Amino acid sequence: MSTFQDYVDTFDNESGYLNWAAFGPLSPSVREEVFADADLLGNGRPSSLSLVWERVGQAQEVVAELLGGDADDVTLQPSSTHGLMHALYGLSGAVIASTAEFPSVSLTLERASTASDRALTPRWITPDDGRVTPDAVAEALDDEVTALAVSHVDFRTGYRVDLAALREAIGPDRLLIVDAVQSFGVIDVDYSAADVVVGHGYKWLRAGRGSAFAWFSPRARERISPCSPGSPGPRPPACSWTSSPRPRHRPGRTRSAARTPSRRVASRSGCATCATPASPRSRSASPSTSTPCSRSPTATASR
Length: 303
Ligand SMILES: Cc1ncc(COP(=O)(O)O)c(C=O)c1O
Prior knowledge:
By secondary structure, this protein is an alpha/beta fold. A seven-stranded mixed sheet has the order 1-7-6-5-4-2-3, sandwiched between helices.
């Protein structure tokens, strides 16, 4: 049976290392598993590849256990910023966020707004001390607000928001999108107030880069249109692996004429990039929460 001392002994890096909030040196077990998986991937046997592939399900289970959620609601991501992109590029309406947020929240929100032709707009708040309190959020609320995006633990100050109080402030219908990079795996948290939680294992979990995730509650999945089907994910009928998206600028067309229509327009007419017709949900959902088709991975590419 392993003891606390066994665990302490796994901290075999140089003593005095304190920069865990930036990067957690990989634990011995992670290093062993990474090398073993690299060997399996190197031999190319189908059985080896499936063994490594099984890691996906295992990782989903572990993340779900730490989150107190369901493994089916966990997606694995290259980074937590990717997870935030999936949430924010699939939303419309106004999203409250602090100007003091880590750029993974603030810059992604800004870029998602531009890419959506302002169907999504940031509702910036600049609270005292950068603290996202329920009062600071309540002041910024109006009918256009569809979500709050917030770091659970602030990367500069270590301030920890009260997720349950923020949920109470925004009410039951808006989405609470939580960047848990600075808290995941190091403090016990009740994430049940959140609709989206993103995190990464390269800090406190000592799991290395590329071990990120995004968890979407069933309600979040109803409201957020997927940005990308992912490599082994469900394939929308109109986006086959063999068909490429249409070029953005065709010869003889002006730049403005060739632009992908705004996502608001796309929601009414279908997706211009992958030619997917408008879904019944996007036709019927309320404008403040619905988002047009963004099924093609390029639908959200920078303009
Ligand atoms: C609060 C916060 N969010 C996001 C990130 C970036 O995470 P990732 O590298 O997974 O995109 C960091 C990195 O320090 C962070 O502190």
